[in-house]
Amino acid sequence: MCASKSTSLMELDMGCLVSLLFFLFIIATKFDCCIGHSPKALCREEEREALLSFKKGVDDPSNRLSSWVSDHEECCNWEGVLCHNTTGHVLKLNLRWKVGQYASSFGGEISSSLLDLKNLQYLDLSCNDFRRINIPKFFGSLSNLRYLNLSNAGFGGVIPHQLGNLSKLHYLDIGDSHYDYRNSLNVEDLEWISGLPFLEYLDMTNVNLSKASNWLHVMNKLHSLSVLLLPSCELLAIDPLPHVNFSSLITLDLSYNDLITSSFDWFVDLISLTTLNLASNEIHGEVPSAVRNMTSLRFLDLSDNNFVGSFPDWLFHITTLEHLDLRSHGFGSNKFEGKLPHDIGNLTSITYLDLSFISLEGEVPRSLGNLCSFQLSNFSCYRPRKSLQFLSLGGNQLSGSFPHTLGECKSLEYLNLGMNRLSGPIPISLGGISSLRYVNIRENLFKGSLSTKHLANLTSLKSLDASSNLLTVQVSSNWTTPFQLTQLYLGSCLVGPAFPAWLQTQKNLQSLNMSYAGIIGVIPAWFWTRSYDEVDLSHNQITGSIPSLHSSYMYLGSNNFTGPLPQISSDMEELDLSNNMFYGSLSPMLCRRTKEENFMGDLDVSGNLLSGELPNCWMYWSELAMLNLGNNNLTGEIPSSMSSLIWLSSLHLRSNRLSGDVPVSLKNCSNLAVLDLSENEFTGSIPAWMGKFNGKFIRFFPGFDETTHTPGLMVLLLHSNKFNGNIPLELCHLHSLQILDLGNNNLSGTIPRCFGHFSSMIKPSNSTFFPFNNGHYFGFQTKDTATVVMKGLEYEYENNLGLLTGIDLSSNKLSGGIPEELTSLHGLRFLNLSHNHLQGKIPVKIGAMTSLESLDLSMNRLSGFIPQGMATISFLSYLNLSYNNLSGKIPSGTQLQGFSPFSFIGNPELYGAPLTDDCGEESKPKSPIPDNDDTEDNGWIDIKWFYLGIPWGFVVGFWAIMAPLAFKGAWRHAYFRFLEEMKY
Fold first, then answer.
1. 58-59 and 107-108 beta bridge pairing
2. pLDDT tens, position by position, 926-959
3. At what angle do helices 941-967 and 969-982 cross, to 10 degrees?
4. In what helix (H) or strand (E) does residue 814 lie, and over which residues does it extend?
């Protein structure tokens, strides 16, 4: 826990470290010269009793203070206690719990008896666990303290202002690397800090300073301050400083706050600064130009802000920089314009450079090789130092070839060029960097081979990601690798046809991705006996059966696996076996009881040959959040044990032969956001309780206090079942609903007017965000899908599911008119009301549905004119108004006239383009109108039989001619003789 206190920032900033060590040396020499265990140094009786009283209040489960006993009179020899050589006064009390220490940390209460240690100069209680008790106020009365370290000790509440009485204090650390929102350290104000005139080091990491709006002005009063660490303090603004008093500042860390736009003019006076960390704020505008005056700067982190504008190439003239981080992690973060400047070669002292995801363009300059030179450092007593060790340029738009000069970076350990537009072959020189541990070149346009010449000398390699390139892996099956990988990603590279046998030598491999890799045939038996964290072999042509699986995340979809479903370990969290040829029942895999709790969160076995009834053992899989059993041959009813799946957010049962009513027990799955029961044989009415799936606050995981808000039902697909009765009005309560498909059932009654209140369909959405496709909800890799009929065709949506909004009520027995309220759904992208008994006029305001891309009102009894506003729906690309009783002229405008005449056929009183004859004269179609009184087929049955008869007529006609020629030799010879004569 306490190890996290030693951040990479402090490890990399050697100048700060040197200064800090010097400072601590000065403190130590002030009293350590008088500290010892001389036989003449006798423990003071009153101080020995004070220490024993302190021990009584402390919880010490590992008996770390076993030497603190009353019959051991010499307290100066006790654990953690140091005394003055001659006076015997206790000067130093070090009770810090060290990482890796066998004994447990302290807890309990802190006795005020410490006040009897009147000469105490050094107190360290860090890295213990005092269970969020308040920092004792009496600490402010330890007037001789020079050093106070309470970091990561589990204190909470308001920091007592009495600490401001410690006027001799040089070092104060009350930071906490483990934030606890329930009772974090906080302050009412910071004025008490000004009472510490000699303070040189201040760390308040994760202390809530949101109420201390004047924090900068208070800190500016500390003339001796050298190190100021205020990360994650909820700072909101930086007020202008008219004059800088703490110009001796060496290290300034304001990272992970909420700073937005502020004046940084006062940076000009921080000429001694060697470390500046402003990462993970929301600072807008250009990078503060005042930074260019920090000529001693060695550590600069501006990552994850909102900096924009031209790339600040002047940064590359701060030649002292050893660590530079400008990366962006999310949308709206740092976005710079322009190319990577040639001046990057000036950073000859750099060891860490991260410029990933900041929109850089152009080719990588050759001067990058200057960063790899082996030279003397001005900051290491003229001893040689390592050159560039960490380089990340990933997630930009860099083009051109692989930067060959990187082959000179013999100290490089981390290389990320992924997600760019780099092309050409991988240079052999890459294989000469034996120090490389991590290589990421994914999602580029590299082509050619990746062979042993590239890999043979990479003896330190742990992670290789070359996925999504045009590379062919050319490695012999008996190759002896020089490395032991933990991660290997070769997805969309040509690895096959054989499964690489050399992987058997990789004993430490935990993550493997060889999807879309052209692998054909059977996986070796040894592979299934090993345990991995993550394996993705999807979208290959792998055959054979799978005996058992032992990985946490396994993606084997879209292959040719056969046999029964494999046995799985209880610690598996995600499993994708979709689109294979597994057969048999689900029960052997799911209903085998084990002593261990199952942690499966995502299970996809869709698109197989599974049969039998759904097992009634879902109580063993209570952690499931996504379940896809679609496109199999499953039968029977939904079992009652599915009510145990209280975390279930996505349930796909489409395209099976399930029957019966939807059980009321399913309403316990109240976190559902996607429910797909389409293409089954469910009967009865649509349950009204589905309208209660409207989102709520839940614990994120069982046993955790953190909560999240479930989105409510977003996708409801009940297409092609045997549901009957009216559409329940309760569905109108589903404010998050984006897709509603009730088509091809036996529903009757009218379309509810309250459908116009679906909040998620009212405003157009330009975001592709969908909770389960972005790792937002439960973090699963498998993406959710929805299959809908749109524009007359069936589509499966995945990546753009968040954009899709639509209603399909087609092929039912709905009557009445089209509610005017539907026209308020301005964000609706498709609407299908065809094949019903709808009457009346098309709503006049339908032109307000400006997002519509597909509209099908065919095969109804609609009458009247086509509203003029329909011609203004610019995104409309599919329209079917055929076979109604519409009349009048089709509204003019390029939108409607661009559709086929078949979009309007079957309306005898309708005329105008595109319904025109060959002479350009407007005419009225002669097509018969189907009899809408026929409740079974709406008159459409004749047309269906016509289209069904076309292929059969072709087959019969074809074989009527070809069969005699095939089986009658005389006919065949006569036919070909006739053709021969026709040539002449």
1. antiparallel
2. 444 454 444 444 444 444 444 455 555 555 555 5
3. 90
4. strand 813-816
